[in-house]
Design brief:
The complex is a heterodimer. By secondary structure, chain A is of the alpha/beta class. Chain A is built from eleven helices and eleven strands. In chain A, helix 5 packs antiparallel against helix 6, helix 5 runs parallel beside helix 11 and helix 6 runs antiparallel to helix 11. By secondary structure, chain B is of the alpha/beta class. Chain B folds into two domains: about 120 residues, Response regulator (Rossmann fold, 3-Layer(aba) Sandwich); about 150 residues, 2-Layer Sandwich (Beta-Lactamase). In chain B, helix 2 packs parallel to helix 3, helix 5 runs antiparallel to helix 6 and helix 6 runs antiparallel to helix 10. The chains are: A alpha/beta, B alpha/beta. At the A-B interface, helix 4, helix 5 and helix 11 of A face helix 4, strand 5, helix 5 and helix 10 of B.
């Protein structure tokens, strides 16, 4: 991952020799990373309390407190931070111990600039992935709560669209309700799409990504399949859409509609992402059903209130 | 009577003597051992059966073209919960780092030390059992979340939560209490795993038992019910076989509506992961309770009005 357009990557080096700091800094600063250095483990642990480093590189043999202690403390207290051990005295035992404690890698000294860069970038990728997974997990928990925090249909529909856009980082989303009698899809709610795209015409469920209803599973359509899969391929292109993901809204195999996500970039979705979307669509469908049940009782009540004598 | 098998272990080494010795050591300690001489054989077996642990020599005389790392990578993908241990006659830093990155839990050197191996194997099989139990608990919670969000029947929602939490956490019991309108009485509205006698022990003074929670919106953990003055009925709790109580707030927009209480038979340590899960569930439970309440309120209003109207028309007609 490049640092372009993102906050600078922050790296802390722990080594009792200044010369090591200088050589590591020279290599990593070329990449645009910011490198700070400390001479002792305790000093490093103090720094970590204030600065959210992305990665810590620690020597093994340091006076006062060993680099092993740094690995242990970081892995235990900072799950979002990476740590890598390097050493001029590599042994199988210290390699195994440091990695058991949570070091992402173990780099014998001397190393070439390329070796150091490879280890640093691989470790950064690992830590970014961990952060992303955690972020998605937290966003998902929030999204699930948000759609259940209401019994008002309109609010729930909007909330499903907004949360799905946030979760999957797409441009727009729409909720289409399946009319079983004439097999049309009616727009119930949307976000991030232009008025003219929304008004493009009647959607026929047997022509607009028909595979979704057949398989009852999420289906991704890429730009080169628009002609075969969409009813309005031209309109989708004009809207700047490159990938469309359609997920059935269903509870116990009964499909009531489709949740559709629109990405401006060509985009594929991982198995985990599809699982998450399925789960979210299912919870969304339940929330919609609850809202409909609530609306029905409220309507019944309002209807009766008309008969209440003045 | 044959003792229970402690775990199933796949052993991969191209030296028949190593396989024999490992098999002897592990079987003597009641593990089921499947020895393999090649990676191909090991993978085939792994696809058919479930194992707790793979003990592997990374450097294999690979007639089938598979080295130990390739095998580790493949089995790791097939079952990420499998524990891996390297046991090697060719220890070096590179292979140790590579093995650990592939998820090995340890890297041991030959000649093997039976005691070290047995201690490690014992720990790893226990860890894996605990991991699988946690996963099962999470699956129970997921199912529970699904079920409570698809019901608008208040009592059903409450009963589902109490039963699901007790099962998912593997604890003695669980209660759900809701605050009344004046916010000074906590009423138990659902319980699981506790006797009726215990539940009817007397009114709960919410200021005493949950005063802190009402103030702070935080959990309250009582590790020992006999030594805590927040417990109103310590004797009854002891008789019921309760050792500790964890109370988790049920909040709607930061406002307390009630509490979920978890009762354990022995002092229990809950991991941060368990706390996170429990809070996620408590949040959803609170929402489901609130929705069911709103629905039932509306329904009650409707039915009352209908009753009134029926009375009115009947009176009018007579």
């Amino acid at each position: 991952m490049s640092a372009q357009g993102k906050p600078k990557v922050l790296i802390l080096v722990i080594d009792d020799e200044m010369i090591v700091h200088q050589s590591i800094s020279r290599i990593l600063e070329v990449e645009g990373y910011r490198v700070d250095g400390v001479l002792r483990v305790d000093e490093a642990l103090e720094r970590l309390k204030k600065t959210p480093y992305d990665l810590v590189l620690t020597d093994l043999m340091i006076p006062e407190k060993s680099g092993m202690e740094a690995v242990k403390a970081i892995a235990r207290d900072y799950p979002d931070m990476g740590v890598v051990m390097f050493t001029g005295f590599p042994t199988v035992d210290s390699a195994v111990e440091s990695m058991k404690l949570g070091s992402l890698d173990y780099l014998p000294k001397p190393f070439t600039p390329d070796e150091l860069l490879a280890v640093v970038n691989r470790s950064l990728d690992k830590i970014y992935k961990i952060r992303q997974e955690r972020e998605l997990e937290d966003l998902y928990a929030e999204a699930e709560k948000a759609i259940q925090a209401s019994l008002e249909l309109k609010e729930i529909l909007n909330s499903i669209n907004e949360n799905v856009v946030r979760l999957f980082k797409v441009k727009g989303s729409s909720l289409l309700i399946l009319n079983k009698k004439n097999q049309t899809l009616q727009l119930a709610s949307s976000t991030g799409l232009s008025e003219s795209y929304l008004q493009k015409g009647i959607l026929d469920a047997t022509k607009s990504v028909p595979e979704v209803l057949k398989s009852s599973e999420p289906v991704v359509v890429q730009a080169d399949q628009f002609e075969n899969q969409l009813q309005y391929p031209e309109e989708a292109r004009r809207e700047g859409i490159s990938s469309i993901l359609s997920c059935p809204l269903k509870v116990q195999d009964k499909i009531s509609g489709i949740l559709r996500l629109y990405s401006p970039q060509p985009r594929s979705f991982s198995g985990e992402e599809l699982d998450l979307l399925r789960k979210f669509a299912e919870q969304g469908t339940r929330a919609i059903e609850n809202a409909l049940a609530y609306a029905k009782v409220r309507d019944d009540l309002e209807a009766l209130q008309k008969y209440v004598p003045e | 009577m044959t003792p229970e098998i402690k775990g199933k272990i796949l052993v991969l080494d191209d030296e028949p003597q190593v396989l024999q010795e490992l098999t002897r050591i592990l079987e003597a300690d009641h593990y089921q051992v499947s020895p393999c001489l090649t990676g191909k054989e090991a993978l085939a077996l792994f696809k058919e059966e479930d194992f707790d642990l793979l003990i592997i020599e990374w450097r294999l005389d690979a007639q089938d073209g598979l080295d130990g790392f390739q095998v580790m990578e493949s089995v790791g993908k097939l079952d990420p919960t499998l524990a891996l241990v390297v046991l090697t006659a060719f220890p070096d830093v590179d292979s140790a780092v590579k093995a650990m990155k592939l998820g090995a839990r340890d890297y041991l050197k030959k000649p093997m030390d039976a005691e070290i191996i047995l201690t490690l194997v014992g720990k790893l099989t226990e860890d894996r059992k605990a991991l699988l139990a946690r996963r099962e608990g999470q699956a129970v919670f997921e199912e529970l979340k699904r079920r409570i969000s698809s019901s608008l029947n208040l009592q059903e929602v409450l009963d589902l939560i109490a039963a699901g939490v007790a099962k998912g956490m593997g604890v003695k019991g669980c209660t759900i209490s809701l605050l009344d309108k004046k916010r000074d009485q906590l009423k138990v509205v659902a319980y699981q795993g506790l006797t009726q006698k215990y539940m009817e022990k007397g009114p709960i003074d919410s200021v005493r038992s949950l005063g802190e929670m009402i103030q702070s919106g935080q959990d309250i953990y009582i590790p020992d019910v006999t030594k805590d003055n927040r417990v109103q009925y310590p004797e009854e709790a002891l008789k019921e076989g309760i050792a500790s109580i964890l109370s988790v707030p049920l909040l709607i927009k930061q406002e307390l509506i009630g509490a979920m209480r978890i009762y354990t038979a022995s002092a229990q340590h809950f991991s941060p992961e368990e706390f996170k899960f429990l809070h996620g569930l408590a949040d959803q439970a609170a929402l489901a309770i609130e929705n069911a309440r709103s629905y039932e309120d509306m329904k009650n209003k409707y039915e009352t009005l209908r009753g009134d109207l029926v009375d009115y028309f009947e009176d009018g007609w007579t």
